[in-house]
Amino acid sequence: METLNALLLGFDQAILPTNLFWCLIGTLLGTLVGVLPGLGPAATMAILLPFTIGLEPVTSLIMMAGIYYGAQYGGSTTAILLNLPGEASSVVTAIDGYKMARNGRAGVALSTAAIGSFFAGTVATLLLALFAPSLAEIGLLFGPAEYFSLMILGLVASVVLSRGSLPKALAMVFIGILVGLVGQDVQTAVPRFTLGFEEMSGGINFVVVAMGLFGIGELIKDLETPESRTAINAPFFSMIPSREDWRRMVAPILRGTGIGSVLGLLPGGGALLAAFAAYAVEKRVANPPEGFGGGAIEGVAAPESANNAGAQTSFVPLLTLGLPANAVMALMFGALIMQGIAPGPTLISEHPDVFWGVIVSMWVGNVMLLVLNLPLIGVWTRLLTMPFHYLFPAIVVFCSIGAFSLGNSVFDIWLLGAFGVAGYVFAKLDCDPAPLVMGLILGPMMEENFRRAMFLARGNPSVFVDRPISAGLLVLAVLAIAVVALPKIKAVREEAFQE
Amino acid sequence: MTSRLNPQLIAGLLFVSIGVAFLLGSLDLSYGTWRKIGPGAFPGLVASALIAMGLIVALTAEKHDTGKQQPGLYSSKVTFIIAAILVFGLVVRGGGLLPAVFGCCFISSFASRPLQPVKSALYGLGLGAACSLAFIKGLGMPLAIIGPWFGY
Fold first, then answer.
1. Residues B80, B55: one domain?
2. B-interface mutation test, from A216, A429, A462, most B Cβ less than 10 A away
3. For chain B, which terminus, N or C, has the lower number of CB atoms within 10 Å?
4. For chain A, what percent of residues have pLDDT higher than 70?
5. Which of A192, A394, A396 is closest, CB to CB, to B85?
6. Interval A75-112: pLDDT, tens
């Protein structure tokens, strides 16, 4: 009953005309970047963050969330029609989806993806509504020691799941933490690592770092790998799945939704992991006549459901514990902070309109995507042929204006340039910037909780293992590292998976 | 085998140097006591860990990439993009938003293969006008469209 009331409160927010409008803008933008390979949701959100300051908190979050799940839809469209996964999470969809399109079943594949995503989105929204409040209550029990351990776990998870080698990813996290610590120390007001720049005493704005690393960095990388993209006119025939198709997609959608919802909850999880895991499970469980890779509808239904479910449940750790699970959530975290809202267990009780509004809007957004996207598929694929050389100067301009507008300071533009170079260098050296952004967000909070916990424990570092919840979180973190570090095979296998 | 630097080694050395820079910086700050940890302790710890990771990355360099081709680190495209950002920063206060956007757009278009200066310039002007309209007239950004340099 309580949940129902809360959901109704959310509906009140979600169907406000302004919120509906920005939800639509967000999902459309998300679909657009999902369709265009190269520019991911993280980069898009980073570029747009500064411009959302003027919006109401709930509205800006609704739009940001729309970009994230919209990108999942868009990514699957190009994966199916062109064998070009616009998003990493739709890589597996391309395997069977494109084959279906080649067999003249593009329409069915697209509807299957849309139906699966919509179903998964609905279930994930309900799960979020049911379980998030109780998780937040657990979060209220956390002291500084628990928070410190939780953040360790979050960082470890982001490292474990990033691509590339473990020491490299850890190094990126450490760089992120250090960059996050630049500026005045919170407790003693001593300026740290500011190199004497007055402008840096307030810290380096994380939006600038994200824009530089994701936006500018990815842009330069894209420019260097020119791809000729031509839209193939896949024969559509019918969008409507046959009775047989329906029968075959039900179980994979259910399995995908289940797997995605659980994996999205984990720190470090999200859409990408969910899609891969769901496809792997489907390969073992289902037995399609075509075989996987031959255009099996199961191979589209399961990962598409899973990535959408995962995208939505990955909001849970952020909205209940204040722990961003991946780089996109780190940007959502930044959006909340910019709006003056502290993400954490008190979010639900202090800003119920924001919390429930965002949750319900995700469902509303899914409806929009279902209704709008299928008819618009032709438009999206035509956009693929849009020449990149019109797009990228605009991106550079938006990044510059965005950086400036953060604090009306030219200094932020210099920082943007510096982090753009850094992003490019990291890309060249094959270092994933996602762990750096995680470290950047979590670093300062880690330090604060560490110092507070040590103070409360009178300088005894065993406080982190004496308290059961804290010890449990640390054990999980160690286990996660061990799993990846010991059998190196696992990483290799995942690499092979991507091919 | 190769006397050339491979990306793995460069990455490792880069990590070490960043770590050393922050470690040196943290030495100027108080480390405090176990009970009252000072502003230098945590950064010092993280910087040391970063140095350690950098060493691991650098020392295991050979094993990791054998047979991968060496990517060139330098690209003229970076220069144009970064120059475009810098020009925006230099012009925006004195020159106003329209010239800044124009310059930024025009310079960044050099990074693209089929360069068409006239088209780029027109596109830059159009984008500048659109941005001025949206951000200054629409969102009320405290900037001039055409700034004091041009006598306004």
1. no
2. A429
3. N
4. 91
5. A396
6. 888 788 877 776 677 778 888 888 888 887 888 888 89
Task: Report phi then psi at A431, rounded to 5.
Answer: -110, 120
Kindly report the number of other CB atoms within 10 A of residue B151's CB atom. Answer: 6
Instruction: Work out the percent of chain A whose per-residue pLDDT is above 90.
Output: 17
- Contact between residue A93 and residue A79 where contact means Cβ atoms under 8 Å apart: yes
Can you give the residue ranges of every domain in chain A? 2-498
- pLDDT at site A101: 82
Contact B105 A226 (CB under 8 A): no
Rounded mean pLDDT of A376-400? Answer: 78
Residue B81 and residue B45 share a domain: no
Tokens describing residue A128: 């979020």
pLDDT at A231: 47
CB proximity under 8 Å: A 425-454 to B: 425, 428-431, 443, 446-447, 450-451, 454
Q: How far are the Cα atoms of A153, A193, A206, A411, A491 from residue A203, in angstroms, in the given order?
A: 25, 9, 9, 12, 36
**Minimal CA separation from A322 to chain B, in Å:** 21
Q: With an 8 Å Cβ cutoff, are A459 and B33 in contact?
A: yes
| Pair (B85, B121) in one structural domain | yes
Contacts of A163 (CB under 8 A, 6+ apart): A432
Q: Which of A253-257, A377-381, B11-15 has the lowest mean pLDDT?
A: A377-381
A192 SS3 class = strand
CA atoms of A277 and A437, how far apart (whole Å): 25
Question: Under a CB-based contact definition with an 8 Å cutoff, are residues A365 and A70 in contact?
Answer: yes
Is a pLDDT exceeding 90 seen at residue A31? Answer: no
- What ipTM is given for this predicted complex? 0.89
H or E element in which residue B130 lies: helix B117-131
Query: Containing domain of residue B144, as a range?
Result: 76-150
* Chain B partners within 8 Å of A51 (Cβ): 139
Cβ of B46 within 8 Å of Cβ of A425? The answer is no
pLDDT averaged per 10 residues, chain B (length 152): 67 94 91 87 94 92 54 72 93 91 91 78 90 82 83 69
Q: Is some CB atom of chain B closer than 8 A to the CB atom of A405? A: yes
Q: Which pLDDT does position A497 carry in this prediction?
A: 47
> Structure pTM?
0.83
Burial class (CB in 10 A: 0-12, 13-18, 19+), B90: middle
| Cβ pairs bridging A and B (under 8 Å) | 182
